[in-house]
UniProtKB/TrEMBL annotation:
The chain crosses the membrane at residues 28-49, 61-82, 114-132, 144-165, 171-193, 205-223, 243-263, 270-287. The lineage of its organism: Bacteria, Bacillati, Actinomycetota, Actinomycetes, Kitasatosporales. PANTHER family: ACYL-MALONYL CONDENSING ENZYME-RELATED, SOLUTE CARRIER FAMILY 35 MEMBER G2-RELATED. This is DMT family transporter. Keywords: Membrane, Transmembrane, Transmembrane helix. Belongs to the EamA transporter family. Residues 3-130, 144-286 form the EamA domain. The keyword Cell membrane does not apply. The keyword Metal-binding does not apply.
Length: 288
């Protein structure tokens, strides 16, 4: 079950990143984050009410609050790093956040066997290569590297925090709701500050009408992201965190394949090799 839930996580995160990337080409990134999370929080609020999740409130929800604070900060750092570029370096570095949950698992006493250890190494290498790392060309600004590393460890921190936010399915719904409400508060505050400083909240072309037209896509991005958080939490609860984290971090492969399938972007040789290594690592982890 761990492998199944973790692979579902990578699929959902990969599709969410792909959709979010398309939306941010036309709409300010903070607006995409805030609107998608508002929709998701509303849906989760209905689910929590219908399942009686409010009764699961307890101290563990502070993990969800922390995840809700860290998530938007990590995403903002990641978008700023992508703006500084080069993307061929930023993208694969962003996947290094897997070190956080893997490290937490090792500290907790998890010890992968030899086959799983090999799978971890192969899968991580595949994820980095699937991002299409730029081995030559434009120099990388130190600020871009720093922002990317902050984002990566922020993403990894969210994975670890949300995995500890609940022990039951109904409690998980409540934890995800709290996380999303916190996301909206933090992201909304950042958007307000951005607008006060002269930034844009609406697309240049179409304004509010363009945002309304994009609501289905925004809903998909938000719901896919929250579903990924949920499946990762289940994966971490059903098996070794070291395995769940690595398998869940295959999402850059999904994003690259989605770009190939929907946008007809050609995979570079290094990306194709990375996708193959990620597949091999997945097999080793699943059979280990």
């Amino acid at each position: 079950m761990t492998a199944l839930f973790a692979l579902a996580t990578s699929l959902l995160w990969g599709l969410a990143d792909f959709g979010g990337g398309l939306l941010t080409r036309r709409t300010p990134a903070l607006t995409v984050v805030v609107v998608s999370q508002v929709i998701t929080a509303a849906v989760l609020g209905v689910i929590v009410t219908a399942t009686g999740g409010w009764s699961e409130a307890g101290p563990r929800l502070w993990y969800a609050v922390a995840a809700g604070v860290v998530g938007p900060v990590a995403m903002l750092c990641f978008y700023q790093a992508l703006a500084l570029g080069p993307m061929g370096v930023v993208s694969p570095l962003g996947s290094l956040g897997v070190a956080v949950p893997v490290g937490v698992g090792l500290i907790a006493g998890e010890r992968p066997d030899l086959l799983q250890g090999a799978g971890v190494a192969v899968a991580v290498a595949g994820v980095v290569l699937a991002g299409g790392p730029q081995l030559r060309g434009a120099p990388v600004q130190r600020r871009a590297v720093l922002l990317t590393l902050v984002a990566a460890f922020g993403f990894g921190g969210v994975m670890s925090l949300i995995a500890h936010a609940s022990t039951t399915v109904t409690g998980l719904f409540l934890a995800l709701f709290v996380q999303r409400v916190t996301n909206v508060a933090v992201g909304g505050g950042a958007l307000y500050v951005s607008v006060r400083r002269g930034g844009r909240a609406l697309p240049e072309a179409g304004g509010a009408a363009a945002v309304r037209a994009a609501l289905p896509a925004l809903a998909f991005v938000g719901l896919a992201d929250v579903a990924a958080n949920g499946t990762y939490s289940l994966a971490a609860q059903h098996g070794p965190v070291t395995v769940a984290a690595v398998l869940a971090s295959l999402y850059p492969v999904v994003t690259a394949l989605a770009a190939r399938g929907f946008l007809k972007e050609r995979l570079r040789g290094v990306q194709a090799a990375g996708a193959g290594l990620a597949l091999v690592g997945t097999v080793l982890l699943a059979t280990g």
